[in-house]
Amino acid sequence: PVRPFAEIIDAASVRHGVDSALLSALIEVESSYKPNAVSAKGAMGLMQLMPGTALRYSVGNPFDPEANIDAGTRHLRTLLDEFGTRGALAAYNAGEGPVRQFGGIPPYSETRKYVSRILGIAEQQVQIE
Questions:
Q1: Structure confidence by residue, pLDDT tens digits, 1-43
Q2: Which residues contact 63 (CB under 8 A, 6 or more apart)?
Q3: Does the CA dihedral 2-85-54-26 come out positive or negative?
Q4: According to the model, what pLDDT value does residue 127 have?
């Protein structure tokens, strides 16, 4: 199966040392691969960047797939370095504060489901490839 935005995802994966299956799974869960997605909380684009995150990584247009994926991947890389895979996904969803506070995935059902869903999708992708 052809993954949407595969070239951009793979380039960001290599550039920032983040697994491409994990990136694809995160994008699938965050935005269903819709570059113009906007959440109720104001998160934007494929990787659902919050305005502060877009600013932090100097994203001019958060709806530009390349800029969005690059910034989202850079952000995920910093979270992976601090928290490891499961903690990084939890921090991507719930924020870094709760993950630090609880020393791992916070006890929010939404965040726990989010982490499980992404890891499940990523695993399936690896098995397919």
A1: 578 999 999 999 999 999 999 999 999 999 999 999 999 999 9
A2: 35, 36, 44, 45
A3: positive
A4: 75
Mean per-residue pLDDT of the chain = 95
Instruction: Output the CA–CA distances (angstroms, integers) from residue 94 to 32, 60, 99, 101, in the order listed.
Output: 19, 24, 8, 12
Q: What is the DSSP letter of 2?
A: P
Residue 129 pLDDT exceeds 70? no
Catalytic residue IDs: 30
Percent of residues in the chain assigned helix, strand, coil, to nearest 5: 65, 0, 30
Which residues lie across from 8 on neighbouring strands? none
**Which residues on adjacent β-strands are paired with residue 21?**
none
102, two tokens: 């609880």
Which residues, at least 6 apart from 15, have a Cβ–Cβ distance to it below 8 Å? 70, 73
Asked if residue 128 has pLDDT above 70, the reply is no
